[in-house]
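Order emerges. For instance:

***
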Amino acid sequence: MALTLYVDTARWRAHQKQITDQFPGLIPVCKGNGYGFGHERLCEEATRMGADILAVGTTYEAASIKDHFGGDLLVLTPFRRGEDPVPLPDRVIRSVASVDGVRGLVGARVVIECMSSMRRHGISEQDLGLLQSAIEDVRLEGFALHLPLDRPDGSDAVEEVIGWMDRLRAAGLPLHTMFVSHLRAEELARLQQQFPQTRFRARIGTRLWLGDHEATQYRGSVLDVTRVAKGDRFGYRQQKAASDGWLVVVAGGTSHGVGLEAPKALHGMMPRAKGVARAGLATVNRNLSPFVWAGKQRWFAEPPHMQVSILFVPSDSTEPKVGDELVAHLRHTTTQFDRVLDS
């Protein structure tokens, strides 16, 4: 009995091909928990699609992945002086976001990140004059721009990239390769047409691995079902059942990521109102679980345990049976499955 990730492999790979066809020279991203699939699986998929570079989040990820992927590894977290040394092969490329960082990587392969409207990290325009001498001591693989997902001000992603291309060219810096994130295929094509001498390489993770929501599904197995009457006490905290129904123990708890939720950016009155309503229900111990039974998302009977969750299914629903599987709406990047089944 397990929390299982089901993968429609043919459909999943068809989506991968669609994305790689739209983005020539695409660099797959494999970071965190491997977008819910695990590092080894994504290394296999990147190798199968013929990727020459795989982007990872940290040097620690590069160290664990290097034995599963034979091409170059691009570390996305910028190098900082004083960071913990991690033994890595020469095929690892380091991102760097400061002139000091470039000078601290003598002899290394580097990608220099430029400060985008994300304002997260990167070389500033004022630093460009100092780069000319600094890059003489490294093997420069190119420059990079990590762009925002949303642009509520109506600004143009392509124009932002062009602005940086113009600055780099004016500073006499080489423009043979630009690594970019969060551009649409048509935007990338516009850039490639305008700058035919530069190779644009899109770093893509979420859209590549998780872009087809119908290709994957989490399901938790029902481990136990117990009938309860209104007022019966149950669980660690001995709460009372609000009505007649069943306590359903299902595979999937906090160790799997169930009940753990990242903050969301809310836009518009309706999503905000729903957020307020959820917060209000939580104050009276009413929390909606990610598990679905008989067409409805069911409530947690109490907070999820480490490896299982206890749900409350009211008596007006069909009784679940041990061995049934409940679809679970879980976030791939925060979920750890017990097993994966390909179809």
Notes: Residues 272-284 have pLDDT under 50 and may be disordered. The chain is about 25% helix and 30% strand. Residues 9-22 form the longest helix (14 residues). Residues 1 and 29 are 31 Å apart (CA to CA).
